[in-house]
Each structure stands twice: as structure tokens, then as C-alpha cells.
Model the fold of this input.
Amino acid sequence: MERNDLAALLYTENHEVPYYECDVTNRMTPAMILNTIILISEHQNIELGLGIDFLDKFNLGWVVVQYEIDIERMPVMNETIAISTQATSYNRFFAFREFWIKDSNGETLVHVKSTWVTMDRTARKMVSIPEAVILPYQSEAVKRMPRLKRPTNINESDDLIKKPYQVRYYDIDGNGHVNNAHYLEWLTDVLPMDFLTTHEPKQISLRFENEVQYGHMIESQVTKPVESEGSMVTHHQIVVEDTISATATIEWRSRVE
Amino acid sequence: MERNDLAALLYTENHEVPYYECDVTNRMTPAMILNTIILISEHQNIELGLGIDFLDKFNLGWVVVQYEIDIERMPVMNETIAISTQATSYNRFFAFREFWIKDSNGETLVHVKSTWVTMDRTARKMVSIPEAVILPYQSEAVKRMPRLKRPTNINESDDLIKKPYQVRYYDIDGNGHVNNAHYLEWLTDVLPMDFLTTHEPKQISLRFENEVQYGHMIESQVTKPVESEGSMVTHHQIVVEDTISATATIEWRSRVE
Done:
């Protein structure tokens, strides 16, 4: 366990990207970025004695509220990447965790900022973060949390592309909830294939509002891509009937072969 | 590269099963079994100089026709498994490849038998297997291929459970085709959740008939589980309009916690 410039403990692991974590262009999918960073943070939790067994004693679970993902370049098939994480800072109700994905030259490919809360498992309600579950990370106690970029809301007048998706059995993880990475799959899959093969995300702001459940038919809605300050931008939402489950804004760059 | 009791070269790699390759019961999903064994066979191909670049020279691709998967126990979350493969035997048109997944005590958890053909990429037609792409595996040349158990066809009179699935952008792999593992996802996802959480596959016979395409709406159809010789058995098919894309028969055992 090494120490970063900042106070919080930094945890790093290598990951070799298999073909089945990649899309048709052999680049890692945005959903697999989320899956692998969460895997590495779980490994840090276990190393510090803060794994699921420990949280069970408090009847608590960590729940992510928001991600801001900056992408310099997507990892590619068979590439070995180094994934690092630290629980940077926290206040009474929120914890701020960062992740970095670097290539073999130490260049940062992806930087993820995320905001987390602790949820009482029985009441399914947010509770203040007990010191016992946060202090071992050596996070910095702060008054104000770093502000992540919020997704832009979709307006009723926007011209939308929509597609229905069935929430599947295999979308449910070991906690009995839909794995968050699937939201990112639904959010992006709705875009036309010729757009997805010629663009890659530059920045993703993703916010979770309400949980979807097994068996739900969700609808993924996206504004038609428009140019803004030299990038293409799309605004997204996942809805179940009239309830918004997640929102996102994605800035895209043209893909270079 | 070690040698097996049989003639063909055996290739082995370890794999640690991350949470996102598991289902709600923290067992590896059938689809991820296929993804990981194919990864390991790709690594053997590369080690022997028989990777995609080499096949490109012949304008050929390997295509799997049928799997027979015998499961003693599914690998579980965080378990380190050893995955082995060998290209056991071949004749003019077919190659027979086996895979073994073993636990840390060397016990076999999963044994997969599979039949492959070489396909001309332009004509999308099966061609006889060139010696150059098969000899380096030291496979045994045989007259008769081992017979894999064929799935039982569904009858029109069968009482079926059906569910539609959209073929998604992320279902397409780097070759531009739907990754075969997704068929297994559609085939099993259609079953009720309370069946899937209380049973695990004991044997899966899976046969590919016709390729599905991006944008297709496929229907997964399954007979209601019935008991046969002490096991539950289900018969499956994936259809696109009137065309059968894949068939499967799955024998299930009750899950022991």
C-alpha cells in the first residue's frame, strides 16, 4: 500500500483487458471501465479490512451517487493497464473517491471522480458515514465536497432517440441490485451504431436517481448528437414509466484509427 | 507449453473470477464460462503463431458449431481457476477442441467439448481446414469426430416461456459478429428468477444454426422445466422471425448453498 501526494492511501492493480470487455472497435467499453474500477476498490476495501463482511456489522452498503469520467483514450484489447484508486476526502454524508487508469508508460488514460454515500440496508436510506468505515482510508475530512459536473436535463421539446431494454437476470449483482455498469450500457447502446463506431466518449457525467429492478422494462432516451464547442454532446436519461432512474451527459470526440 | 496424455498440446492459464462475471448467487455465469475459455484458446493460438493475423492470410475464421458443457460446480466469485485447452483432434472439415476448468486442488469443475469449422470470411462458407492452421496444435487426425450430444428440438405442442431480446451494440465483437456467449445469456435469462437462483446447469448442449445480427429482435423460447431421471431439463431455442439461430438442452441440478 503506497502513499499518494495527497493524504489518502492509494491502491493499484494491473488488469489485462480481454476481448470480451471490448466493443466492435476493440476498445474497452464504458461499462467495463466501471466494472473494473469497482473491482479494484473492492480489493482495497478487503486489504484494509473494510470489505462487505465488515460493512455487514453496520448493516451498511456503499452506494455511488455520481460519476465524472474523463477519458484521454479508451484502453484497447490485450492492453495491460494499471488501475489505481483512493478515497480522497469525505464529510458527514458524502465520500469522494478517485480512480486512475494508466498505460504501461504511466500516462493517464482515464480519470474517474465519484461521490458515494452509506445506505442503511434495511431502511434503504442514506445515513451519516460512521468513522469506522472511513478512517482507515486516511481520507481527508473536508467541509465542502468537490463539485462534480451534473448531467444536463433533457427538455420535453428535445428531439429524442428512444429504445426499450429489459432488465435481465444477469444484470443483478451479488447484493441483489442492478450492477451500475448496466446503466451505462443502456445509456450508450441507444445511439446509432455508425455514431458509436466513429466516436468515443471524452467526458461522461453520470448521476443515479432511482434504482431499477429485475423485470422492469426501462427506456433509454438520448438527444440527437449536436456539436458544442468542437465536440459532439448527448444528453441521456433512463426512465421506468414516469420515473427517472439515471441521467447522463456525454461529450464525444471523433475516433482516430 | 506442456504435453497432455494425448498428443495435442495443452495450454493453461489461471483466471481470478471478478464479481462482474458472476450472477446474483455469486457464481460465474454460463456466458462468462464461454468468454473465458475462448480467451484462453486465443492465447494458445497466439503462442503458436496461429492468431487472427495468421488466419487473415487465409481469409479464414474459426467458427464454433456446437458445445457440450459438463459442470460439476460453477466457479465462484474471487476464486482462482485454472483454464486449460487443447485442440484434441480433427478431420477434413471439423476440429474438436476441449477445455477444462479446475479449482486450486486440481479438481475439474467444468469440462467443455466443442466442434469447430473454418469459414471463408468473404463467402461466409465453410471450407476444408488447411493443414497450416491445424498441424501446430499437434491434434490427432481422425476419420470420425467425437459425437457431441445434440439439443432436443422443441415441438409445436410444447408449453413455452418466451421473451424478446434486442441484439445490442455491445453484443458485437471485434470480428463484427455477435459474441457467442450472448446466446447463452438469452437462452437462460428467459427462465424465471426463482428457478435460476435455485438451480445450476449440470450439462449444457448448445448448437449454433444461424447468426443473429445487430438490431435484430430475437425471441428466446424455453420449455417449462420438467423432471427427467432425477434432474430438471429444459429445451431452448433462439428464433429471429421464422429462423432458428441456436438450440440448447440444459440439465439442471438443485443449488446447494
